[in-house]
Design goal:
single chain, mainly beta, Immunoglobulin-like
Length: 484
């Protein structure tokens, strides 16, 4: 149906503001390794570079009396939009996180998986065929029950994988991930980052952000934060404890950090009196924080930020919640309860920012979250353009692959009610151009402004409209007027 017909015939207002938006569960993606004897509970989730699929390790459920029976040893690749399971790959016991290494064209070259129980890393093809199993540096004189690899990150050139370990090893192993190297898929370096663990992330090459959890001498308390490590000179590292001073027998911990484009560092701290979300300078100075108080359980685990760095989503593996934080105001704008046994673990955003995908470690599924707070269609139009110049128009938050259209009026910026929609144009208005949203949710159009003097002083008002995957029509939330 043409967008004009949808615009005129629709009967509900779909415009929203950040404070009124509420995330919702759109659907679930079931997970299985096709083996009924193993438990298919997921741990982490990592996007494929295509942005349409993801790699999800199936860890199973830990049961210390019988590791073989309760640990899974598979990873699956799923289509995030259709929910179809595309491939199943063999790992070792209790796979946790995946790391994708890209080739020269930006496509996936290899997938690495951290196997916590086995103390190894699996290397697979993008289609999840096995390539190699990599044994990590022993901790406490052995491998099994001691190394516990957790998070991984690839170097920008794709030639190295940096693996954090949990359980007190304090070691980062460096794997050669260059297929042209004679030491491909072997550990080529190890260095100590005291109290490290969790999911690392680049601050800016060569500085790596690593979550840390530091215990006192008697293990009666702990504090948490992050270290900044120069991986080209690992001795050059600085630890920053950002959590509050603990009470006796209160154990803080950090599992994930995130670097914003402005150099600020986001870190989730669980185990405080109330779990707390922090924003810090790279030197550890806390700039803002938000206590989650009684909103959720204390065990914060996953963290993701939307592509525009507007919204952060945190997972509470003990509270069964995802918590949504507006990064402009650093306030909570939503809490979604996934259910008592769901155990939300990890989360990623779609490249267009329209959905968040959350792994449910207590279940065998991914929860797909829609209605992301503040996901309003944005139209960027200059206020003035000289005659004879070029008018450049941009759209943001248009779902990838979904149609959009740009409308214009010479009569003013409304408002006008059309079929229940708040159209910010004055009749008559006309459709100028249309297209489909790019993978990152953007679109653009350019127009040459005639140079004749008769066009000088013209005011043109613009508004955009798009049709989402779920059939909703959204209009840009402001009229933009350009004067020639």
């Amino acid at each position: 149906m043409p967008l004009r017909s949808l615009l005129v015939s629709a009967s509900v207002v779909v415009l929203s503001t950040l404070s009124l938006s509420a995330q919702s569960l759109e659907r679930v993606i079931p997970l299985t390794d096709n083996d009924p004897s193993s438990m298919d509970h997921p741990f982490g989730i990592t996007l494929d570079p295509s942005g349409t699929s993801a790699y999800v390790p199936l860890c199973g459920l830990p049961a210390f009396s019988n590791f073989a029976a309760s640990n899974n040893d598979n990873i699956v690749k799923v289509d995030l939009w259709t929910g179809a399971q595309l491939a199943v790959g063999q790992t070792e016991l209790f796979p946790e996180d995946a790391c994708v290494v890209k080739d020269a064209t930006g496509q996936a070259r290899h997938v690495y998986v951290s196997n916590s129980t086995s103390g190894t890393i699996s290397c697979l093809t993008p289609g999840l065929a096995p390539v190699a199993t990599i044994t990590l540096t022993p901790c406490w004189g052995s491998v099994f029950f001691s190394v516990f690899p957790f998070g991984m990150v690839a170097s920008p050139d794709g030639n190295r994988i940096y693996v954090t370990t949990a359980g007190g090893c304090g070691t980062i192993d460096v794997i050669d991930s260059d297929p042209a190297s004679p030491t491909f898929n072997t550990v080529v370096q190890s260095f100590t980052v005291q109290d490290c663990g969790g999911r690392p992330e680049w601050l800016a090459w060569p500085n790596l952000l690593v979550p840390i959890t530091t215990y006192d001498a008697n293990y009666t308390t702990s504090r948490a934060g992050f270290s900044v490590v120069d991986v080209t000179n690992p001795a050059n590292q600085q630890a920053h404890l950002v959590s509050s001073i603990p009470f006796p027998f209160q154990y803080h911990f950090a599992t994930e950090v995130h670097a914003l484009s402005n150099g600020r560092v986001l870190v989730t701290i669980g185990g405080e009196v109330y779990p707390t979300f922090y924003e810090c300078l790279s030197n550890g100075t806390v700039t803002r924080s938000v206590s989650l108080n009684t909103l959720t359980g204390i065990n914060l685990h996953g963290l993701a930020v939307d592509p525009e760095e507007r919204i952060a989503v945190l997972t509470s593996i003990s509270g069964s919640d995802t918590i949504w934080v507006d990064l402009a105001t650093f306030t909570v704008v939503g809490v979604f309860d996934h259910g008592g046994i769901s155990k939300p673990n990890d989360v990623v955003f779609a490249p267009d920012g329209s959905r968040a995908f959350v792994t449910m470690q207590g279940l065998t599924q991914i929860d797909v979250m829609a209605q992301i707070p503040g996901y309003t269609l944005a139209l960027d139009v200059p206020t003035t353009v000289a005659t004879g110049g070029v008018l450049n128009i941009g759209l943001r938050r248009c779902e990838s692959g979904r149609p959009w259209a740009l409308w214009a009026s010479l009569s003013g910026s409304g408002p006008l009610n059309v079929g229940g929609y708040n159209v910010l144009l004055t009749a008559p208005f006309y459709e100028l151009i249309g297209g489909v949203g790019a993978q990152n949710g953007t679109a653009s159009a350019s127009f040459a402004v005639p140079a004749g003097p008769s066009f000088a002083g013209f005011n043109v008002s613009f508004q955009a409209v798009t049709l989402d995957r779920d059939g909703s029509v959204r209009l840009s939330n402001g009229a933009s007027t350009t004067t020639f």
